[in-house]
Amino acid sequence: xxxxxxxxxxxxxxxxxxxxxxxxxxxxxxxxxxxxxxxxxxxxxxxxxxxxxxxxxxxxxxxxxxxxxxxxxxxxxxxxxxxxxxxxxxxxxxxxxxxxxxxxxxxxxxxxxxxxx
Length: 117
Description:
The protein is mainly alpha-helical. It has helices at about 20-45, 55-65, 65-70, 80-100, 105-115, and strands at about 1-5, 10.
C-alpha cells in the first residue's frame, strides 16, 4: 500500500520503502531559477534576440521540460512510477507559475537580461 504524506510517498507491505523526496522537491522548485533561466538567457544572447516576457517564459519552460528526460531514466517499477508521477505533478505546477508570470526569480532574471544586455 502506498500512502502520500506531505511531500513524499511511503510504501507499506513492500520491502522497498520510498524515501522522502525533499531533494527532488527543492530541485523542481529551483529548476527555473538555477538551470532554465541560465539556459534561456544564454540562448537569447547567442541568438542576439531581446525577447518579450512571454517569449522568455516559453524558452524557460522549454528548458524545464528537459527534466522529463531525466525522469524517464529512473528504473521501471510501480513504486518508481508513483515517484515519477509525483515529480511530473510538481514540474507542471512550476511550469504554470512561469507561464503565468508568477515565478519571481524568472521575472527578475528577465528584467535584468533586457535592461543590461
